[in-house]
Each structure stands twice: as C-alpha cells, then as structure tokens.
Amino acid sequence: MNTLDNIEVDITVELGATTMPIHHLLRMGRGAVIELDATEDDPLRIYANNTLVAKGEVNVEEGQLRVFVTEKTARGG
C-alpha cells in the first residue's frame, strides 16, 4: 500500500465552460464576468488526470468550499 502514497493525481472541478476570442480575454479586467454554459443547478464535472470520473455539487460550509460527489461516471473500455 505504501506505493500508492506516492502516486500523484491531478483533480479538476469544472463549473462550466465557454468559448471566447483571445482578444476579449486579454481586455478583461478585475471583476469581469464570464458567462458559462451551465446553470447553478447543473452538476459539476470532476476530472482526474483530464478524465471525467464523476459529477457532483458544490457546498459552502463555515467559509469552506466543498465538492460532493453525487455520481460516478462509467469508464469506457
């Protein structure tokens, strides 16, 4: 089991996505709003090493952001 202690996994949680020209991104300043393709009720997408592994929801408790896994994604084989 000690071998598993040294394995690194990059976890990414995606709230939503959008596409925009780079010149719009470069002109954005502090406080700019970027519209995403998701609503507040849509599940988050959770990736491990760029592979979708689960869906979930965000929760704020005592000033801490938490992500709860609500559904594991089936692995393609």
Summary tags:
1 helix; cell projection; flagellar rotation; SpoA-like_sf; four-stranded antiparallel beta sheet; 77 residues; mainly beta; membrane; flagellum; 8% helix; Surface presentation of antigens (SPOA); 4 strands
Q: Would you write up a description of this structure?
A:
The protein is mainly β and 77 residues long. The chain has a single domain (2-72), classed as Roll (Surface presentation of antigens (SPOA)), CATH 2.30.330. Helix content is 8%, strand content 38%. The chain is built from one helix and four strands, in the order βαβββ. It has one helix at 22-27; strands at residues 11-14, 44-48, 51-61, 64-72. The chain has a four-stranded antiparallel beta sheet with strand order 1-2-3-4, with no helix packed on it. The radius of gyration is 16 Å and the shape is extended. The mean pLDDT is 91.
